[in-house]
Amino acid sequence: MPTAAIYPGSFDPLTNGHVDIVQRGLKTFDKVILAVANNVQKSPLFSVDERVSLARECLGHLKGFEVDSFNGLVVEYARKKGVSVLLRGLRAVSDFEYEFQLASMNRKLNRDVETVFMMTSEESFYLSSRLVREVASFGGNVEGMVPEPVLRELRKKYAAKTK
Ligand code: ADP
């Protein structure tokens, strides 16, 4: 039976840490659906549509990769898609507590959905979308931290904001 996993998150923006989890996820699962959550942050830098198209541009060539967006509970979304695995990345110990709470809550909400964690690679353990946004907003160089199309769009966003 083919196995699919949903990789949910904000991806505001997609970083090389996310890319790494998707690439490695595809070695374990036949299908990885990167699912952009539409409700987590009140004022995201990139709209959901922008995040979806960036993920498609950066990773769309990978076999078994899909991009989507969802509203509301991720377990509900998983049920609708007929997928029973949620894929999440773990960086430092600091991620653990939140991820543990989230996975436990999701299991409480739907016993049939299991969360699977992958450890970050050593090149991207320090990467977070929040830090990338912050550094880029001050004109810092985030080359090598995000895929090329994200770099291009970050430059456009902040050039427009400083005008
Ligand atoms: P959220 O919006 O839930 O805070 P993100 O959209 O930033 O999360 O990330 C989605 C998932 O990717 C989370 O499981 C997060 O822990 C993981 N992740 C983010 N950055 C990295 C990274 N550098 N290495 C590995 N996993 C990461």
Offer a quick outline of the entry.
The chain is of the alpha/beta class and 163 residues long. The protein is built from six helices and five strands; from the N terminus they run βαβαβαβαβαα.
Describe the structure using short key phrases:
alpha/beta, two-stranded parallel sheet
Could you describe the 3D structure shown?
The chain is an alpha/beta fold and about 160 residues long. About 45% of the residues lie in helices and about 20% in strands. It is built from 6 helices and 5 strands, in the order βαβαβαβαβαα. It has helices at about 15-30, 50-60, 75-80, 95-110, 130-135, 150-160; strands spanning about 5-10, 30-35, 65-70, 85-90, 115-120. The strands form 2 sheets. Strands 1-2-3 form a 3-stranded parallel sheet, with helices on both faces. Strands 4-5 form a two-stranded parallel sheet. Helix 4 (about 95-110) links the parallel strand 4 and strand 5. The longest helix is centred in the middle third of the chain and has 17 residues, at about 95-110. The chain is globular, with a radius of gyration of 16 Å. The mean pLDDT is about 95. The protein binds adenosine-5'-diphosphate. Adenosine-5'-diphosphate binds near residues 10, 21, 88 and 89.
Q: What is this structure's SSE topology?
A:
Blueprint: E1 4-9, H1 16-28, E2 31-37, H2 48-59, E3 65-70, H3 74-81, E4 85-90, H4 93-109, E5 114-119, H5 129-137, H6 148-162
Parallel strand pairs: 1-2, 2-3, 4-5
Instruction: Tell me the fraction of residues in β-strands, as a range.
Output: 15-25%
Q: Distance between termini?
A: 53 Å
Distinct ligands, ions and cofactors found in the model: adenosine-5'-diphosphate
Number of helices: 6
Helix content: 40-55%
Please state the CA-atom Rg, rounded to the nearest Å: 16 Å
Which stretches are poorly predicted, pLDDT < 50 over at least 5 residues?
A: none
The SSE order reads: EHEHEHEHEHH
Number of strands: 5
**C-alpha geometry:** globular
Instruction: Give the rounded overall mean pLDDT.
Output: 93
Largest sheet: 3 strands, parallel
Strand line-up across the major sheet? 1-2-3
Structural class category: alpha/beta
